[in-house]
């Protein structure tokens, strides 16, 4: 019990110290070992139907970061200073159709489902796409994007627990950013689209005020 209580306090302390870091200390770099640990927590994240509809593009090239700045207003402080800058891509609708190459790869090659189980899942998933997602390309892609935020949250939390700061970023022009990534050969074809960005590093200074949140009673209802 003592170990459990200690671990809980350690995790809560990491949450309390975490903040959306707008600029990082350029003299401090995350080690390869630590950043691979962060990426691994993203890789191991859960996703709906186990489809893992994400790709983590780590942008370390300074010239490419500079190209991204004019179309990434929410990352002007992070792009030049972050130790590691990640663009998270989400699989587009074509990759998530029931008969797509990716879906079948996940069922057969990754999850090693027997053929009869695949057929059962195919029927169930096809119904889900047709009813819950209205067989709509935009809704399917938005559903895919939502899955990537699970990985995003896990990576940021894991980083905080080992003393690494982060900042999630949605402030960018998706169309222009996509065009740059296509020109750079990072996005090829219609398999992926941009979901969000996240910067990692070590803070230059502590935030001006401590973290504030609503009280637990204001956001939780028991029935």
Features:
about 45% helix; alpha+beta; four-stranded antiparallel beta sheet; single chain
Summarize this structure briefly.
This protein is an alpha+beta fold and 223 residues long.
Structural overview:
There is one protein chain. It is globular, with a radius of gyration of 20 Å. It is 45% helix and 13% strand. The chain has 223 residues and is α+β, with helices and mostly antiparallel strands. The chain is built from eight helices and four strands. α2 crosses α6 (137-161). Strands 1-2-4-3 form a four-stranded antiparallel sheet, with helices on both faces.
Structural class of the secondary elements? alpha+beta
**Contiguous runs where pLDDT drops below 50 for at least 5 residues:** none
Residues in β-strands, percent: 5-15%
Span between termini: 29 Å
Helix content: 40-55%
The total beta strand count reads 4
Oligomeric state? single chain
Major sheet description: 4 strands, antiparallel
Strands ordered across the widest β-sheet: 1-2-4-3
- What is the residue-mean pLDDT, rounded to a whole number? 96
Order of helices and strands: HHEHEHHHEHEH
Silhouette: globular
Number of helices: 8
Give Rg in angstroms. 20 Å
List the helices and strands and how they pair.
Blueprint lengths: L1 H16 L14 H12 L10 E6 L2 H7 L15 E8 L9 H10 L4 H17 L5 H25 L3 E5 L4 H10 L8 E10 L14 H4 L4
Antiparallel strand pairs: 1-2, 2-4, 3-4
Helix pairs in contact: 2-6
């Amino acid at each position: 019990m003592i170990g459990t209580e200690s671990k809980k306090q350690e995790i809560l302390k990491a949450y309390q110290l975490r903040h959306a870091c707008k600029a990082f200390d350029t003299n401090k770099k995350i080690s390869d070992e630590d950043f691979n640990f962060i990426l691994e927590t993203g890789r191991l994240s859960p996703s709906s139907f186990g489809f893992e509809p994400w790709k983590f593009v780590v942008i370390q090239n300074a010239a490419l970061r500079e190209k991204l700045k004019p179309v990434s207003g929410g990352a002007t402080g992070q792009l030049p200073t972050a130790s590691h800058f990640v663009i998270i891509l989400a699989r587009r609708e074509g990759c998530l159709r029931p008969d797509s190459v990716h879906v079948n790869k996940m069922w057969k090659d990754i999850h090693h489902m027997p053929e009869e189980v695949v057929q059962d899942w195919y029927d169930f998933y096809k119904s889900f796409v047709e009813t819950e997602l209205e067989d709509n390309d935009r809704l399917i892609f938005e559903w895919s994007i939502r899955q990537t935020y699970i990985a995003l949250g896990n990576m940021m939390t894991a980083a905080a627990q080992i003393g690494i700061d982060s900042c999630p970023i949605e402030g960018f022009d998706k169309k222009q950013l996509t065009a740059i990534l296509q020109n750079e050969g990072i996005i090829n074809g219609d398999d992926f689209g941009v979901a969000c960005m996240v910067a990692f590093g070590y803070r230059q200074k502590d935030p001006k005020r401590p973290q504030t949140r609503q009280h637990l009673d204001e956001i939780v209802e028991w029935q």
